[in-house]
């Protein structure tokens, strides 16, 4: 049988980088093994699940290029099936009704706290007789369904990332709740550990790859698999993504949703490439920058680290800038033009826009840098103080007047050679270094001392008919 992998997001928030990285590892493994990557929307928590989050998750995955192979399954549509299975577990005697009230639970927690013990359910309703159960129901008490976990049961599995993992029943918090509270004979809506096992089995999932925060859930789920005589999938638990302080990356770490990365101007290919490096790395000597298809060929779960993966903005920025550098300029221009249109900055021609794109392409880290980098070509910038000092100290007024005189004589648009000639002629005439004149011109054009290639920038300004006027305006100030 073909491998079947899945992502099972809960639509209770925007697509998070952690979920996206889990999706990516599942996707890569499915591709590598020519299997299928599937989606199941775990929307049984009706109070927190929202259709707009499902939409956001699906759109985010599509944007990242993590396509899925079958229609997504909505877990909420399978609640009745889950209930039938819970009933089966009750009939088997491996699960039971627990009538513990909120107050009783709270009291238990307080006593445990007072005695310095970790919170653990004490299974006090485990041994009820049929008639006791009946009378509790008749009294109008509500109940949850719990699955028996014996303290001495041993759960062992081979994790594809972590090797052998062992758990003891006593460390799983007591008998596990399978369903929410309900009255009478009813079974409340199913909870995660039950639903995930039933649905993974239904979807014939062969490999479960998810975050290490699910390890203890896996131990619990294996008990359910065994009770239902389902075949176990292969489990893999990926390392968590950590912030710079080594703590789990959370909403407090400013940017965590895929939408935000998109808005900041990260390219999907760069972001997925970076995400593969959160916990995995190619063998030494192999390039870190590779397409997902190429990575899927060399990716292997046994090469995924066990230790947490620190999120490194510098690395992400470097990877993004490499993707931008290597992008087809026409394609990049099509992106940039949207930013310019939003700012209401008009380009004189497509060729001009392409030339500007080419000029700044290598200095863009995230797409929205295009605004700062291209603004001086659309808007006259105020001179910064350093520039004013420079112009005054070097007495460049006569140089700039000279440039205006030469430019005024020329009728057609200027080119590289003509600019070189002007610079040569004026620097000889005034006996100054070329760099003084070039710096003065850069200030006159753009208001500052640094920027992209001066001659190319000048040609662009000249094509907009703004070089002369900008020099003139600068002269008016100094
Ligand atoms: N809905 C769970 C989550 O989002 C799924 C975990 C799993 O992959 O089993 O954490």
Descriptive notes:
The protein has 478 residues and is mostly helical. The chain has four domains: 1-70 and 239-326, Rossmann fold, CATH 3.40.50; 78-194, Alpha-Beta Complex (Glutamyl-tRNA Synthetase, domain 3), CATH 3.90.800.10; 329-374; 385-477, Orthogonal Bundle (Arc Repressor Mutant, subunit A). Helices cover 49% and strands 12% of the residues. It is built from 20 helices and twelve strands. The chain has helices at 17-32, 51-64, 79-92, 102-114, 130-138, 192-202, 215-227, 258-264, 268-276, 292-298, 313-325, 329-343, 350-360, 369-378, 385-393, 397-409, 416-430, 434-446, 454-463, 467-477; strands spanning 4-7, 36-41, 73-74, 95-98, 142-147, 154-159, 163-168, 176-183, 207-211, 234-238, 241-242, 309-310. The strands form five sheets. It has a three-stranded parallel sheet with strand order 1-2-3. A three-stranded antiparallel sheet has the order 4-5-8. It has a two-stranded antiparallel sheet with strand order 6-7. α1 packs across α10 (292-298), α6 (192-202) packs across α7 and α9 (268-276) packs across α11. The radius of gyration is 32 Å and the shape is elongated. It starts with a strand and ends with a helix. The site of glutamic acid has 7 residues, from loops.
């Amino acid at each position: 049988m073909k491998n079947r992998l899945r992502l099972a997001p809960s639509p209770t928030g925007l697509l998070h980088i952690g979920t996206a990285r889990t999706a990516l590892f599942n996707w890569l493994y499915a591709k590598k093994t020519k299997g299928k990557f599937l989606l199941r929307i775990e929307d049984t928590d009706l109070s927190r699940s929202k259709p707009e989050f499902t939409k956001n998750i699906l759109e985010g995955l599509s944007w990242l290029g993590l396509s899925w192979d079958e229609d997504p399954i909505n877990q909420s549509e399978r609640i009745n099936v889950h209930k039938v299975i819970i009933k089966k577990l009750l009939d088997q005697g491996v699960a039971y009704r627990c009538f513990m009230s909120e107050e009783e639970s709270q009291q238990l927690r307080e006593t445990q706290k007072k005695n310095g013990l970790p919170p653990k359910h004490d299974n006090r309703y485990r041994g009820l007789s049929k008639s006791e159960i009946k009378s509790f129901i008749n009294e109008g008490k509500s109940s949850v369904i719990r699955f028996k976990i014996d303290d001495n049961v041993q759960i062992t599995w081979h994790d594809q990332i972590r090797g052998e993992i062992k758990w003891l029943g006593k460390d799983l918090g007591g008998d596990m709740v399978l369903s929410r509270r309900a009255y009478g004979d009813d079974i409340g809506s199913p909870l995660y550990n039950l639903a995930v096992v039933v649905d993974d089995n239904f979807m014939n999932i062969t490999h479960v790859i998810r975050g290490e925060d699910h390890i203890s859930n896996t131990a619990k789920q294996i008990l359910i698999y065994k009770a239902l005589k389902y075949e176990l999938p292969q489990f893999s638990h990926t390392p968590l993504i950590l912030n710079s302080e080594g703590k789990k990356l959370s909403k407090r770490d400013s940017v965590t949703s895929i939408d935000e990365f998109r808005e900041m101007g990260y390219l999907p290919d760069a972001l997925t490439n970076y995400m593969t490096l959160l916990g995995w790395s190619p063998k030494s000597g192999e390039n870190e920058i590779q397409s997902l298809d190429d990575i899927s060929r060399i990716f292997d779960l046994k090469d995924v680290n066990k230790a947490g993966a620190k999120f490194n903005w510098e690395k992400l920025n470097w990877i993004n800038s490499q993707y931008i550098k290597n992008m087809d300029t026409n394609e990049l221009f099509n992106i940039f033009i949207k930013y310019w249109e939003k700012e209401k900055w008009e380009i004189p021609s497509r060729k001009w826009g392409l030339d500007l794109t080419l000029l700044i392409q290598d200095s863009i880290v995230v797409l929205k840098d295009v605004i700062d980098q291209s603004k001086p070509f659309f808007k006259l910038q105020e001179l910064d103080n350093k520039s004013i000092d420079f112009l005054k100290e070097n007495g460049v007024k006569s140089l700039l007047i000279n440039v205006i005189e030469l430019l005024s004589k020329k009728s057609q648009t200027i080119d590289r050679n003509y600019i070189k000639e002007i610079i040569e002629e004026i620097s000889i005439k005034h006996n100054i270094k070329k760099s003084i004149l070039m710096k003065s011109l850069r200030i006159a054009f753009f208001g500052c001392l640094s920027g992209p290639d001066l001659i190319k920038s000048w040609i662009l300004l000249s094509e907009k008919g703004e070089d002369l006027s900008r020099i003139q305006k600068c002269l008016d100030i100094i």
